[in-house]
Specification:
- The complex is a heterodimer of chains A (244) and B (120).
- Chain A is α+β, with helices and mostly antiparallel strands and 244 residues long.
- Chain A has a domain of 125 residues: Protein of unknown function DUF881 (Alpha-Beta Plaits).
- Helices cover 46% and strands 20% of the residues of chain A.
- Chain A is built from six helices and nine strands.
- In chain A, a hairpin with a 2-residue loop joins strand 5 and strand 6.
- Chain A starts with a helix and ends in a 23-residue tail after the last strand.
- Chain B has one domain.
- Chain B is mostly helical.
- In chain B, helix 2 runs parallel beside helix 4.
- The chains are: A alpha+beta (244), B mainly alpha (120).
- At the A-B interface, helix 1 of A face helix 1, helix 2 and helix 3 of B.
Chain lengths: 244, 120
């Protein structure tokens, strides 16, 4: 085979190969076109709609299940117990409480302060107890003295000539007493009572002045910080004490 | 002999790589053109083996056959007669004849070669 023959043969072969490849591709992967008529389209639409309704049904059943679980959970003993526990915690004073109330301030009588002499006025436990009782009598619900929450088992006593509330010493005046009541109305009542109360005079005898703030819509009483130790309490038996 | 085969492989690769796709209604023309090209190719090989090969005849025949086949198919489409079948028939018959001739020539060559080898 001489050279021009080879070249022309090769060229022809290349062209033939090219055409074969193109034809092959065209036959193998024709461009897909949508050739469905209206009835086929309707059929396909129907299929999709069925799928959609099936999915919707599934979603609904899942939501029903979810709500059933939710209501079950709400009705369960655990939830009730949890709720009770939270209520009891709030009642025992283990949570911060914010509500309407008043703020009392105990400060030394400035007229009595003499230059060069230390201010000796201290709040005696008896005075504090009396004030506490008075507050409770007139509708106080939660009380904190100098940032220390007063709960049922709180002791106010004199230890080594220091007034202590559950181990928290009251040394420096002035101190603030936060009182939270049920409602703003009760706070107002309490405020009016405190205005004319005797304990203010008792404080004045001890060289201190008790000032009562206007009722405020939001006073915060901090939570009780120390652990509550229950020593002499027992759960009442259902037969014995619970039924009476 | 190997160069044309290599050329065909190269052409196939080129065609596959370029990802060219012609519209479906024209694929008839291309298939006819492919058939015509094959016919010319095998005709050329036969002529070469019979020692009557002519460069001009081969190259002009290649393009002319392709054009003729395509235009015949075109005419057929416009006349409503499947004229491309005529081209398919003609080229198919010629393809078979050419291949048959090539086979016979190769066979006789092979047998004469063997006889020569035996004589030696």
């Amino acid at each position: 085979m001489d050279k021009p023959k080879k070249v022309s043969f090769t060229l022809v072969a290349v062209i033939v190969g090219f055409m074969i490849a193109i034809q092959f591709q065209t036959i193998k992967k024709p461009v897909e076109r949508d050739t469905r008529d209206i009835w086929q389209l309707r059929e396909d639409l129907l299929k999709e709609k069925e799928l959609q309704s099936g999915l919707l049904k599934e979603i609904r059943s899942n939501e029903e299940k979810l709500s059933a679980y939710e209501s079950k959970r709400k009705q369960s003993k655990e939830a009730v117990l949890r709720e009770t526990l939270n209520e009891l915690k709030a009642e025992a004073g283990l949570t911060d409480i914010t509500g309407p109330g008043i703020i009392l301030k105990v400060e030394p009588v400035y007229e009595d302060i003499k230059l060069g002499e230390p201010v000796t006025a201290t709040v005696s436990p008896d005075l504090l107890k009396r004030l506490q009782n008075e507050l409770n009598m007139y509708g106080a619900k939660q009380v904190s003295i100098d940032g220390q929450r007063v709960i049922n088992s709180t002791v106010i006593r004199d230890i080594n000539k220091e007034t202590k509330i559950d181990g928290h010493a009251i040394k420096d005046l002035p101190i603030e007493i936060h009182v939270v009541t049920d409602s703003l109305k009760n706070a107002e009542k309490l405020y009016n009572h405190m205005q004319v109360s005797k304990s203010a005079e008792e404080f004045f005898i001890d060289n201190m002045r008790l000032t009562v703030s206007e009722p405020k819509p939001s006073v915060t009483v901090p939570a009780y910080e120390n652990p509550i130790r229950v020593l002499n309490m027992e759960t009442a038996g259902g037969e014995k004490g619970g039924n009476t | 002999m190997w160069l044309p085969i290599m050329g065909m492989i190269v052409g196939i690769f080129l065609g596959l790589l370029t990802d060219i796709r012609i519209p479906e209604e024209y694929s008839n023309y291309l298939s006819i053109a492919v058939l015509a090209a094959f016919d010319t190719l095998f005709g050329g090989i036969r002529a070469h083996l019979q020692n009557i090969y002519d460069e001009k005849v081969f190259v002009s025949g290649f393009f002319f056959n392709i054009l003729l086949a395509a235009s015949l198919a075109f005419l057929g489409v416009h006349l409503g007669v499947d004229l491309y079948l005529a081209a398919v028939f003609a080229f198919g018959v010629r393809l078979f004849q050419n291949i048959a001739v090539i086979r016979r020539i190769l066979l006789t060559k092979w047998s004469t070669n063997q006889q020569k080898a035996e004589k030696k």
